[in-house]
Design goal:
The complex is a heterodimer. Chain A contains 28 helices and 38 strands. Chain A is of the alpha/beta class. Among the domains of chain A are: 171 residues, FAD/NAD(P)-binding domain (3-Layer(bba) Sandwich), CATH 3.50.50.60; 116 residues, FAD/NAD(P)-binding domain, CATH 3.50.50; 57 residues, no CATH class; 231 residues, Sulfite Reductase Hemoprotein, domain 1. In chain A, the strands form eleven sheets. A five-stranded parallel sheet of chain A has the order 3-2-1-7-19. In chain A, strand 32, helix 21 and strand 33 form a beta-alpha-beta unit. Chain B is mostly beta strands. Chain B has one domain: Rieske [2Fe-2S] iron-sulphur domain (Rieske Iron-sulfur Protein, 3-layer Sandwich). In chain B, 0% of the residues lie in helices and 51% in strands. In chain B, strand 8 and strand 9 form a beta hairpin. The radius of gyration of chain B is 13 Å and the shape is globular. The termini of chain B are close together. Classes of the chains: A alpha/beta, B mainly beta. Chains A and B meet through helix 18 of A and strand 2, strand 6 and strand 7 of B.
């Protein structure tokens, strides 16, 4: 009889809900013994954990939710008690309690300090003047924005490190004349060497940011033309309206100091390999912690510490053993990466360097004294080899005979990027979430068959995203190793992928399924290849889909130009471009619905859907609609559907631009275009985003300076926020990009693959897509535009064509040899409208009639 | 056996189906491209409980000629009526001929 046993719980209080504190809680909740813990967490900030690594994106989206990592709902569901906007002021280690600013005292069994760091502000006179900021929290960013939009013209970032350059980009984007002032003689002094730093400086100056090196700021005083004047030790000066300090971070260890935990001589809460402080019931993790005299100012080591602490709490051992500080990032569009011993400080280290001034590329490979292993690297301007070099370095993989081949540009031959085979199981693929090759392999073995699946299963690739190309190779390699032949043939009738079929049809000008079958296929075709090829033919040539040679390829929806419903009737959806409709047209819709007794509902895409139309009624219904000026809404096709819009600046007091007008133009431009799957658009007239554009395949949002374009969003089964593709576009450029994007999607997606999944599986992701569409890296944008133009020129309303063709109309009757309709259709009335009878109702009604 | 004329061969677009009414029964009639072979099966789809099979796509799987239901995509063999996804399900088949370009079906 063990029913009466009480389970004793351990109360864990986490001080600080930043990225690492949150990761700790998530890991603890995911552990096997999660029900033995009662979790409390304090957040000094007014919100729960958010992604500080991508903080500068806040300037683009202005949406804190985009960055958020933790949400109150899931904390509540998991039983985590949250104290928001409240700071722990003191710890009573004897009584084992903490007390907060708001006066709360909470007891603990185990305490976790995840207090993070604070930005270091150099002790120079004038550092507290107005418009002097740091760059750490969303509130900081709001203050900076406020200053930039209330008259500041010039901005200076003090500090040319990684974060300083991020901050400089933000100031530039806010429209300020931007300067970076660095004490050291080069940018990113920790991560890159002199040559790399010089190239980085050149590139950043080309982008319009002035860089001042070897400058020690003495004081900040009143300026003449601007608000401030910076006076440097060398006697020079620089005027500015805004100063942003980004001179490094310091561990937030005040709380630990006050409670007499051991701290390092230069700050940081001292921890052992289990992340315990000098008090065994108090842990410290993340940037506030000092391990072997080192502070780790990156998120990945913080996550590793969280994992260590959780393991120790539940009685396991995953000792923290330091962390690799290699990093890769894109600074103002410039790729920069640094691995291991970037400065070749190891005695006897040897270097290979490659420098290409015209193309702006610098690469340095640092190898061990015996020349057998990579121990460091610097990459500027092109960081493609980062993944490979990092794996060489972390796993001490033996170098090839000519190590320089690893950084030299490929001369047409495959110089052998690192084969996935060469990586040990323990090789860390995703450093943000510490996912190894073995973890990915296990995930594939447990049934994950795509990069997207593995991402959701392991979290790999969902941090900074830098590892996605390598991760993709690992996934494919594992699939192949499992004997899952990664057969991408569309079906047994065509030994080609959809992309290959598209290419053949386009290049050879193939116009029919039978021609394609004769040249490249075998057998008769099936329900996979027929609609896929039907769709490609439509995307390429945009011929009428009910032509005799095409009709047998169409799924029932396209074949009858309606959406089939559960009882075999169809629904009718006329186009209402942008959701704008005149009262007269609305009345016509009502009259048609009433006269044909159709169930009527408003759709999510701002149209009206009429249900229950029988096959033989469709032509009569459409004759009425076409006569009244309606066109088919093509709701039945894998094609462009709707362009949803908010009412925009015409009526809305907040509207910034005419979203309805743009939505109508977009809808009319792309109506009828068929694609691998349906495509939805939306246009919002301001950042309040009432049209929900970020959940669409293509979303457009008005800004003060033009239009922001989001791509590859999705609602539905697997919601995905659209990625911001380009900002502040004029109308012409916006349309040009959408033309190219749509055709590139049509060209390269798999069958029935929505843009969201297409993006998830795209190697190189958003950056790659930008290169193709904006920089024309493949040299195809002119073709793409022409192909779209052909589609647009060949548009026809399929219903207008059909009702004029008696031969086509023959198919719109339930029986070929009788005017009767299907006796199986029985309706009952509900809330004043017809609906299909249930099985029981139907049996009852038919019996009564009999 | 009684045979009933249903329609002209050309009333059925190659590679597609129509529905015929014979003795109050609904029959789905398909025309294969090239061979002009005609197949006929019941129009009722037991999985969706709707009369819709004539509006499915003809699909060749291995050596079988089938139709994929437009509703939930189960395949039915056009020569035997057997459902490929569920061996316990089969639907009626009807004999067919083409005489003088007219499609003629067996009446059951």
């Amino acid at each position: 009889m063990s029913l009466a046993t009480t389970i004793s719980t351990t109360k864990v209080v986490v001080v600080g809900n930043g990225m690492v504190g949150h990761q700790f809680i998530e890991s603890l909740l995911a552990s096997e013994n999660t029900d033995q813990f009662e979790i409390h967490t304090f957040s000094e900030e007014p919100r729960l954990a958010y992604d500080r690594v991508h903080l500068s994106e806040y300037f683009v989206n202005r949406n804190a939710d985009d960055l958020s990592l933790a949400d109150p709902q899931s904390y509540a569901t998991a039983g985590v008690k949250v104290y928001l906007h409240d700071r722990v002021e003191s710890i009573d280690r004897g009584a084992k309690t903490v007390t907060s600013t708001k006066g709360l005292t909470v007891s603990y069994d185990k305490l976790v300090l995840a207090t993070g760091s604070y930005p270091f502000v150099p002790p120079i006179t004038g550092n507290d003047r107005q418009n002097c900021f740091v760059y750490r929290t969303i509130e900081d960013l709001e203050d900076i924005t406020q200053a930039a939009t209330s008259g500041a013209k010039k901005g200076v970032v003090i500090g040319g490190g990684l974060l300083g350059l991020e901050a400089a980009k933000a100031l530039k984007d806010l429209g300020l004349e931007t300067h970076v002032v660095e004490f050291a003689p080069r940018l990113m002094a920790v991560q890159v060497d002199d040559d790399g730093g010089a190239l980085l400086k050149k590139k950043i100056e080309e982008l319009g940011v002035s860089v001042h090196l070897s400058k020690a700021t003495n004081c900040i005083t009143d300026g003449e033309a601007s608000i401030h004047k910076l006076e440097f030790a060398d006697g020079t000066e620089l005027e500015t309206d805004l100063v942003l300090f980004s001179a490094g971070i310091r561990p937030q260890d005040a709380l630990a100091r006050d409670s007499e935990l051991d701290v390092g001589p230069r700050g940081g809460i001292m921890i052992n390999d289990h992340c315990q402080t000098s008090d065994k019931d108090v842990y410290a993790i993340g940037e506030c912690a000092l391990w072997q005299e080192r502070i780790f100012g990156l998120v990945a080591p913080g996550y590793a510490m969280a994992k260590t602490a959780v393991a120790h709490l539940v009685g396991n051992e995953v000792p923290f053993s330091g962390a690799d500080m290699s990093t890769k990032l894109k600074l103002m569009g410039v790729d920069v990466a640094s691995i291991g011993d970037a400065h070749a400080a190891t005695p006897g280290a040897q270097c290979y360097t490659y420098k290409n001034d015209p193309n702006g590329v610098y690469k340095k490979l640092v190898v061990s004294p015996d020349g057998k292993h990579v121990i460091g690297a610097v990459l500027v301007g092109d960081a493609e080899e980062y993944g490979t070099l990092l794996q060489y370095c972390l796993n001490s993989i033996a170098l090839p005979a000519s190590p320089e081949s690893l950084i030299l540009p490929s001369m047409g031959e495959d110089v052998g990027g690192l084969g996935v085979d060469a990586l040990p199981e323990t090789a860390q693929i995703c450093s943000c979430h510490d996912v190894s090759k073995g973890d990915i392999s296990a995930s594939v073995k447990s049934g994950c068959c795509s990069v997207g699946d593995v991402k959701s299963d392991t979290k790999a690739g969902t941090g900074c995203g830098g590892c996605v190309p390598l991760m993709t190779s690992v996934v494919n390699h594992e699939l192949e190793a499992l004997g899952v032949e990664v057969n991408r043939d569309i079906c047994e009738h065509f030994p080609y992928t959809r992309q290959e079929i598209y290419h053949l049809i386009r290049v050879e000008g193939i116009k029919t399924f039978s021609e394609m079958l004769e040249k490249y296929g075998q057998g008769q075709g099936c329900e996979i290849c027929k609609p896929a090829i039907g769709s490609i033919l439509a995307s390429c040539w945009n011929e009428y889909v009910l032509k005799d040679q095409h009709v047998g390829l169409q799924d029932t929806n396209d074949a009858y130009l309606g959406n089939i419903q559960k009882d075999g009737t169809y629904s009718v959806v006329p186009r209402v471009a942008g959701g704008e409709i005149t009262p007269e047209k609305l009345i016509i819709l009502g009259e048609v619905a009433r006269d044909f007794n159709l169930y009527t509902k408003i759709t999510g895409g701002q149209r009206v859907d009429l249900f229950g139309a029988r096959l033989h009624q469709l032509p009569d219904i459409w004759r009425r609609l076409v006569a009244a000026g309606f066109e088919t809404g093509q709701a039945y096709g894998k094609s462009v559907r709707t362009v949803k819009s908010c009412v925009g600046s015409t009526w809305c007091r907040y509207g910034v631009d005419d979203s309805v007008g743009l939505a109508i133009d977009i809808e009319n431009r792309y109506k009828g275009v068929r694609a691998p799957h349906k495509i939805k658009f939306a246009v919002s007239g301001c950042t309040r985003e009432c049209a929900e554009a970020q959940s669409k395949d293509f979303g457009v949002i008005a800004t003060e300076n033009g239009w922001n374009l989001y791509v590859c969003g999705n609602g539905g089964m697997k919601p995905r926020h659209g990625d911001l593709f380009a900002t502040d576009l004029d109308r012409e450029t916006l349309i040009q990009y959408i033309d190219r994007l749509m055709m590139f999607y049509i060209r390269t997606a798999d069958r029935l693959q929505r843009t969201s999944v297409w993006m998830e599986n795209m190697e190189g992701g958003l950056d790659y897509l930008r290169e193709v569409i904006i920089d024309d890296s493949l040299g195809i944008v002119n073709e793409l535009e022409k192909e779209m133009l052909l589609n647009i020129e060949n548009y026809q309303c399929e219903w207008a064509t059909t009702i004029e063709d008696p031969e086509k109309l023959k198919r719109f009757s339930h029986f070929i040899n009788s005017p009767d309709s299907d006796e199986n259709l029985v309706y009952v009335s509900e809330r004043g409208q017809p609906r299909p009878a249930t099985v029981d109702e139907r049996a009852h009604l038919i019996a009564k009639a009999g | 056996m009684t045979w009933i004329k249903v329609c002209a061969l050309d009333d059925i677009v190659p590679n597609s189906g129509v529905c015929a009414k014979i003795n109050e029964q609904q029959v789905a009639v398909f025309r294969e491209a090239e061979s002009d072979q005609i197949y006929a099966i019941g129009n009722y789809d037991p999985f969706s409980d709707a009369n819709v099979l004539s509006r499915g796509l003809m699909a060749q799987l291995d050596d079988q000629v089938t139709v994929a239901s437009p509703m939930y995509k189960q395949h039915f063999n056009l020569q035997t009526g057997q459902c490929l996804e569920d061996e316990t399900v089969s639907i009626p088949v009807y004999k067919t001929q083409v005489i003088d370009n007219m499609v003629v079906l067996e009446a059951k």
